[in-house]
Here is the input.
Amino acid sequence: MNLRDLSENSLRYHLETLVNECISHGISFKDALEQMEMEFIMQVLARYNYNVSKSADMLEINRNTLSRKIERYQQFEKFRQHRHIHTSGK
Here is the structure.
């Protein structure tokens, strides 16, 4: 088994565990997907210092689509705090 196989198996295990936890806690499919998408986008934005164009390229989505998603996520305190942490002092 190579490193990629180990990584994929580990990811699959963690995703299965997360899905089971969501189901156990009554989290809807829609809410789980939205949270996963938001977390993924937050991580990519932080990695690229909130450069929307570079982040959109990495995510393989249109820059305008990413901008709309960011605008929608502004309503969530977690997103606002994350952005503040990663952009303060710049």
Observations:
- Residues 3-24 form the longest helix (22 residues).
- The helical segments are 3-24, 29-47, 52-59, 63-73, 77-87.
